[in-house]
Design a protein that fits this description.
Layout: E1 13-17, H1 21-32, E2 39-43, H2 84-90, H3 104-113, E3 127-130, E4 134-139, E5 144-148, E6 153-156, E7 158-161, E8 176-178, E9 192-195, H4 199-210, E10 217-221, H5 249-265, H6 270-287, H7 290-308, H8 313-325, E11 328-332, E12 334-340, E13 346-351, E14 359-363, E15 365-368, H9 382-389, E16 409-411, E17 417-423, H10 429-432, H11 438-459
Helix pairs in contact: 1-11, 5-6
The chain binds flavin-adenine dinucleotide.
Flavin-adenine dinucleotide binds near residues 133 and 163.
Length: about 450
């Protein structure tokens, strides 16, 4: 059954799948390309579930304790207009005006505001919101056809996957709560086990403590690494020529450590070098052979992540106070599984290391905060399963996500990039690695919008 949609819009029609931050920023950049006359359909599976525009996983939180982990001055959706978010903030009646780290819910409202000018545009409908899930997508040669959960089909000239993070689907039969679930309240004195010690662990501890939780909270993770705090930073200027391209990973890490030591000796900090390296991170990742990438994921990524994705000083203070009081315990161990007993309590099993005997903790709640890197095959959505089984896409060798080329085009099972199917943001992480935060996503979106506009105007 075909949906009775208004007559075909003028200009290329682009379907963006996912209306989280990536989808909304991508739509804003496409619609700003007025010479191309793009019409955008923005499709969101959680649309009917009240998930507002741009919120996605990261900015749907309503907790005042969940702050951006990037300074507001660096969260504009437009690389060419760095102060765009700050100007928007100035126009809001918010008590947090002027704060370096504002609430993620505030940023969600900003993202939601980006497309308002285009909603209901006349006479040509430039932007259409479709609150459905895309279950399948097929490249028909000149067009792509999307099958929608409401039973209809949509055709477009291009499709962009802005489907975000791979969400873990194994909850051990509902025993383990997801990091961003809103579970029913528990006894304030009960014990909680959080698997993981990264950003989403911090989120959950802040929520528990703000809710008056008094019980013990145990963070269980292999290395017990906590995200570092934000502090003064002066990103160093690292030229591409300074980077030891083609060298083994261990050599690159030694090079970075030497730079940090020199910077600290000169009165700077490690943050200067980590942030100085950021603009090159995607290129360095792409230059590594697959075995080196695999070694980085096993040994380097946990260290890189806690230094690169830092937390605001106010969040760090709460975490440090909870550790000092003994309420929050950071436990090193490898999580083995969890099961609920007849009394409703959950037994979480783990080993301190490969040689240690199995041990367990009893808790009222176990929360999975093992972060955003999951097996993209095992946790594939219906759409991704369809793209893989139809050969229109393939997983990258490390199963981080879909294989995408340098122009964000999705690579098929035959190794050929698709001219009509692209992926951005976390959905393109297998290829770009550092593409989960807004400062990286906005640049990727701006460049893709420019490329598609050039194609569109070249075709006129
Ligand atoms: C808790 C958290 C906090 C973060 N904080 C920051 C921060 O402070 N600063 C920063 O720069 N970055 C932050 N990030 C990084 C974050 O990745 C990005 O900022 C951004 O939110 C990624 O957005 P996204 O749209 O790609 O993904 P998501 O937020 O995952 O959104 C993807 C959307 O696609 C929809 N979707 C998926 N499949 C389909 C389908 N088949 N059909 C229709 N819809 C579909 C989903 O329902 C979802 O709404 C944070 C990330 C997390 C998880």
């Amino acid at each position: 059954m075909n949906v009775a949609l208004p007559p075909a819009p003028q200009g290329p029609h682009i379907a963006i799948i996912g209306a989280g931050a990536s989808g909304v920023v991508m739509a804003a950049h496409l619609l700003a390309q007025t010479r191309a006359g793009f019409c955008v359909s923005l499709i969101e599976a959680q649309g009917n579930a009240g998930r507002k525009l741009g919120r996605g996983v990261a900015y749907s939180t309503t907790s005042p304790d969940h702050l951006l982990n990037t300074r507001a001055s660096n969260m504009s959706a437009f690389p060419a207009d760095p102060a765009h978010f700050l100007r928007w903030l100035d126009m809001q009646r918010l008590e947090e005006k002027g704060c370096e780290f504002v609430r993620r819910s505030t940023y969600g409202a900003y993202l939601g505001s980006l497309l308002q000018p285009w909603l209901g545009s006349e006479p040509i409908e430039r932007l259409r919101l479709i609150p459905e899930e895309v279950l399948a997508l097929d490249d028909l040669g000149g067009k792509v056809a999307l099958a929608l959960s409401g039973g209809g089909q949509l055709q477009a000239d291009y499709a962009i996957l802005a489907t975000g993070h791979v969400i873990a689907r194994d909850t051990a039969g509902g025993v383990i709560a997801g990091a961003w679930d809103m579970p029913a309240p528990i006894d304030a004195a009960a014990r909680v086990v959080i698997i993981g010690s990264g950003l989403s662990m911090v989120d959950n501890v802040l929520t528990l403590l703000a809710g008056g939780h008094r019980g013990q909270i145990i963070s269980l993770s292999r290395r017990g690494l906590l995200p570092r705090g934000h502090g003064p930073v002066d990103p160093s200027e690292i030229a591409a020529a300074d980077i030891p391209w083609g060298q083994p990973l261990s050599h690159v890490l030694r090079w970075l450590r030497r730079r940090i030591a020199a910077r600290v000796a000169a009165g700077g900090t490690w943050r200067d070098e980590v942030d100085g390296l950021r603009p090159h991170a995607a290129q360095i990742w792409r230059s590594l052979p697959i075995p080196a990438r695999a070694r980085f994921l096993r040994h380097g990524a946990p260290w890189w992540d806690v230094h690169r994705h830092r937390i605001p000083p106010s969040s760090q203070a709460v975490i440090e106070a909870a550790i000092a009081s003994g309420q929050l315990r950071i436990e090193k161990g490898h999580f083995l599984g969890a099961a609920r007993g007849r009394d409703g309590q959950i037994t979480a099993r783990y080993r301190h290391n490969a040689y240690a005997p199995e041990t367990s903790i009893i808790a009222a709640r176990v929360i999975d905060c093992r972060g955003i890197r999951r097996d993209a095959g095992k946790n594939a959505s219906s759409l991704v399963q369809h793209l893989l089984s139809s050969g229109q896409a393939r997983l990258d060798p490390l199963r981080i996500g879909l294989d995408v080329d340098a122009q964000t085009q999705v690579v098929g099972a035959d190794g050929q990039p698709s001219p009509r199917l692209m992926a951005i943001g976390p959905a393109s992480r297998a290829t770009f690695w550092e593409i989960t935060a807004i400062p990286d996503i906005r640049l990727q979106a701006a460049r893709l919008a420019e490329r598609l506009a050039q194609r569109a105007t070249a075709a006129i």
